[in-house]
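Input record (one chain):
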Amino acid sequence: MKKLIVSTAALALTAGFAMADGHGKTVRLGTEGAYAPWNFVNDAGEIDGFERELGDELCKRAELKCEWVKNEWDTIIPNLVSGNYDAIIAGMSITDERDEVIDFTQAYTPPDPSAYAAMSADVDPSSAVVAAQATTIQAAFVAEQGWTLVEFATPEETVAAVKNGEADAVLADKSFLDTMVGADGLMLLERMEQIGGGVGMGIRESDGELRAMFDKAIQSMKDDGTLNTMIAKWEVSSQW
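The corresponding structure, as predicted from the sequence alone:
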């Protein structure tokens, strides 16, 4: 699904997890908390959404204790590498560029289609001003096409840019835009893009044992059907 973080080769891979088993160990999960239905902050001020439910279940299966950390998207990989949390679970697409800096678990959702939203159905993205969240796979896609791109720090700002006329369309995960269309005349365009390689958990390269535990837990949810049930509940992606 979304989000291309620029490689930060200068960051050292520090704060290794170094665990032999998961029995009662505490794991800090970093997420953005601003990308419904994947992750968001609810009215009680708590992290909620598909990835909150998924992360809690994965920790339960791996016999780990979860603590949730909210982090801005543009620093989410650097702060994993520097040890502010132990894993990223934030709608992050698996890409070669990110894999140069961190490791990934196996994907827990297939690639989510990227869609365009605009205030008019006749907008042509190739000749329009297209908004996207900075350092995402959508921003990279627009730039690669040679189209006019405007980037914003948060997904909400990309939608606001279309509504206030700063941009003609926004490109983002369809599951996110589905929660936004219908308000103030915002509508989905027919055109969609298939970019990204599925969504996985980001893990420090030094934490192979932690990655293996989460891989095993993800596979167990695929095998018993609970992952597909959760995907359908939150409508974040196609099923496995």
